[in-house]
Amino acid sequence: MEVFGSVIDKQTRCKHYHSKYDVIAIKFKCCNAYYPCYKCHEESVSHSIERWEPEEFNQKAVLCGICRHELTVNEYLNSANQCPNCQAKFNPGCQLHHDLYFKV
Predict the structure, then answer these.
(1) Residue 76: in which H helix or E strand, if any?
(2) What is the pLDDT confidence band of residue 7, given thresholds at 50, 70 and 90?
């Protein structure tokens, strides 16, 4: 699974967010491509972000950078900030940006 943007390692960290817990990438609905964050998306493309609608939350749109498991939006939003497959911890601060990716 390819991750676009300013990726700095194989676990999906980028130049903007690179703590030990910044290990997810979001599939942007507008371009059907994974980016580590909205800043990487903005720097890479010339279109606006299109957010996932609640009725689309069963779509796989989040990638765990540790095990490469794809989560649905619902799985991610209900994950308690950890991968259901490998239990890697996700950055709880990402919740502050959910409204950029998902219509919640």
Answers:
(1) helix 73-77
(2) very high
Asked whether residue 95 is domain-assigned, the answer is yes
CA 77 – CA 94 distance, rounded (Å)? 10
Tens of pLDDT, residues 53-98: 999 999 999 999 999 999 999 999 999 999 999 999 999 999 999 9
Q: Structurally, how many domains does the chain consist of?
A: 1
- Per the CB < 8 A criterion, the answer to whether 9 and 22 are in contact is no
Residue 28 within any structural domain of the chain: yes
Pair 93, 24: CB distance under 8 Å? no
Parent domain of 31: 24-101
Q: Which two tokens stand for residue 99?
A: 């409204």
